[in-house]
Specification:
322 residues, alpha+beta, 9-stranded mixed β-sheet, 7 helices, elongated
Length: 322
């Protein structure tokens, strides 16, 4: 009879860690895992000190034995690998950077159990099954295109998540918004769940701090092309902030970007805007410090063809009326 072999790690508390909290000691002994993950294991009884369970805040002494039963992922959380197209911009033994097309969901969820970026990543690199969320450190909305970084090891994942939380990963976007914007600026307004529509986020008191910097890179008759930089990473942050200051992103059905074109809009422009049925938002540039060798790295990718076409139509229209 085959018996499933558990992954059990055994450690002895070193002298220099004596008297420290259990979760602190464990995070030093197992640096490939985040402290929050280890705290969860301690609370769930996967960690024993001298044969007994402890709390994360309990102190441990030098020479005590720590047994860690590394939990397996629940069966219902296993994501199936799928041979889907994947645009890999960079890859080494520790990270990979992908250029996500619009229309591709990042994580499986209700209504999208398969056909996601996570499914594609598991086919590309099966070892990602051992990393939380197949190594995905951050996400993009389904209809937003552009760059995402993926950690290929637990050590890289823990470091990148910490860097993201410390705002040490740079994320810059290109967007097309409704309205002729005069100059750039900064939106510093908290974001929380919309009080009535649970699918939407909104600027509201009591929300989480959110800051978006933006600058004008091209102006059209009734639209503006922007370059944006995030300081925080709230859900739908750019979409919410741009709508809140009166310049919703073109094609965004959730936040007002598909409102009726202004009176006097050329028929050709009106048709082009109607055909563009997603938000015109692209994660154009990603910069970070490599999680293992600390090398500064950055990547930049151009917007996808549909956004390039729309920009050219607006550009030609503006030039024709000059």
């Amino acid at each position: 009879m085959n018996v499933l072999q558990q992954d059990i790690r055994q450690y002895t508390v070193p002298e220099e860690f004596s008297g420290e909290r259990l979760d602190q000691v464990l995070s030093r002994l197992m640096p490939e895992h985040s402290r929050s993950r280890l705290q969860g294991w301690i609370r769930d009884g996967h960690v024993r000190v001298g044969g007994s369970t402890r709390r994360p805040r309990d102190r441990v002494d030098a020479g005590e034995r720590i047994d860690v039963v590394v939990p397996e992922a629940p069966a219902d959380s296993v994501v199936r690998a799928e041979a889907l197209p994947l645009d890999v911009v960079f890859e080494d033994a520790h990270i990979l950077v992908v250029n996500k097309p619009s229309g591709l969901v990042v994580h499986p969820g209700a209504g999208n159990p398969t056909g996601t970026l996570q499914n594609a990543l598991l086919h590309h690199a099966p070892a990602l099954a051992a990393v939380p969320r197949a190594g995905l450190v951050h996400r993009l909305d389904k209809d937003t295109s552009g760059l995402l970084v993926v950690a290929k090891t637990l050590t890289a994942h823990t470091r990148l998540v910490a860097n993201l939380q410390a705002r040490e990963i740079g994320r810059e976007y290109e967007a097309l918004v409704q309205g002729a914007m005069v100059a750039g600026g900064t939106v510093d307004r908290p974001i929380g769940r919309h009080p009535r529509d649970r699918l939407r986020m909104a600027v509201r008191q009591g929300g989480r701090a959110a800051r978006t910097h933006y600058r004008v890179i091209e102006r059209f008759k009734q639209h503006t092309r922007l370059w944006l930089q995030l300081e925080s990473g709230r859900t739908h942050q750019i979409r919410v902030h741009m709508t809140d200051i009166g310049y919703p992103i073109v094609g965004d059905p959730l936040y007002g970007g598909r409102r009726r074109a202004p009176a006097g809009t050329d028929a050709g422009i009106r048709e082009a805007l109607q055909r563009f049925t997603r938000q015109a938002l692209h994660a154009a540039r990603l910069s970070l410090t490599h999680p293992v060798d600390d090398t500064p790295m950055s990547w930049e990718v151009s917007p996808p063809a549909d956004m390039v076409r729309l920009l050219q139509i607006l550009r030609d229209d503006s030039a024709g009326s000059a």
